[in-house]
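Retro notes, item 3 of 5
We never archived the inputs for the zinc ion complex last cycle. Fixing that now. Sequence and ligand:
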Amino acid sequence: MNYDLVIKNGRIITAGEDFNGDIAVMGETIAAIGQNLAGSREIDASGLYVIPGAVDGHVHLQMPFADIITADNFEQGTIAAAFGGVTSIIDFVEPGKGQDLVEALSWRRAEADGQVVIDYGLHMTLLDPDPLILDQVSDAYAAGCATFKLYTAYPHFYLADDELYRALIAVAEAGGLAVVHAENYPVITEVWKRLLAAGKVEAKWHPHSRPAITEAEAVNRVLSIAHLAGAPTLIFHLSCGEAAREVAQAKERGWVAFGETCPQYLTLPDDIYERQDMPGTWFICQPPVRGNAQSAALWQSLASGSVDIISTDHCPFSAEAKRLGEQNFTLTPGGISGLETRLALVHTFGVLAGHLTLNRWVEACCTLPADLHGMIHKGHLIPGYDADIVLFDPQREVTYSAENLHSNISYTPYAGVTVTGVPVTTISRGEVIVENGQFIGKRGRGRFLKRRYE
Ligand SMILES: [Zn+2]
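Structure as it came back at the time:
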């Protein structure tokens, strides 16, 4: 049999296996995995890892924040993703108060369709606990939003415990997954007030304003309420050992609870908000980066599986926008970039540093995100699945700078950081879209993923 494309002689690494072989593609689909396969086009992957395309289940492209917007639009953001070995992302629908959920989904799709270069899904944000809106959760699920974002932070998104409970029941009844930003916002705002009143307005006070216990308490409360409501729940962006421990305890009780963390919580140093060369506001995100001791705790939680997956919460704002927080850190548009750097950072600081196995790296960045978020036919190297495949050169070293990354911002938290091992070829549904340092895909080739749980 002559296949369309064969990736030959690679070291194929999945969540469960590690062997040398060939992968054959027909059209958009993986057709066979074996030895001595032949194709019309063949790519020699000798010396390279061949892994499933990475899945980033948490990104904010083209997201409005007051009267500004995140720096990466759907085209530029997905190009950056493709360079980083990412073949699927999940962004968000943020309906207006009272807006029909399926209508809001179609509005958001209209912004992304025709622009994205890789496949994408959308989480549906539930910010309006009105019973008429919660009645539409099953319609949103049927339209392809299998996952629902709930917040216990930010005035516009905040759900009190009773509202959270009702929203979680709606998610449970629809058969969806709740994905939750968990922090104790009422307490955090009181801590802020005290800091600001004492003249503590610089970025370095940001982590002090959101202590780890305010996150852990909220994780405990959210998972308790979710268990009561019967809703499977993924806690987003765990930033500390205290919060990860709450997820671990929920799992021990047999609750359907999952945890996500992000590279910024795993790799950025203690002094990130006090650097001489870069303003601390650039790295303000919520929850805050908490430094080396908390990173160590999170690596352990990832290794043990109590934290399941790694996403990025990619949410870059321009240096100009970040200046809004210069005189008062609480006014900073929160978010950090990372869509392009995750696979390499986790390989270098997770695998090579001895925290994670290669299989766990693939599982946490590629396979489990696809499974948890209901992406059918993604995240695995199995015949019949989408041919989303990444060739990763484990030897190549790159020192990051804003110039050699593809996000539309002038800075990166990883400037000067050297990674060992980078994605070199990205294949999305059988089509090579990044190779030899070039993006060669087409704008708009990405598709909306209708996600569901089987
Ligand atoms: Zn986010």
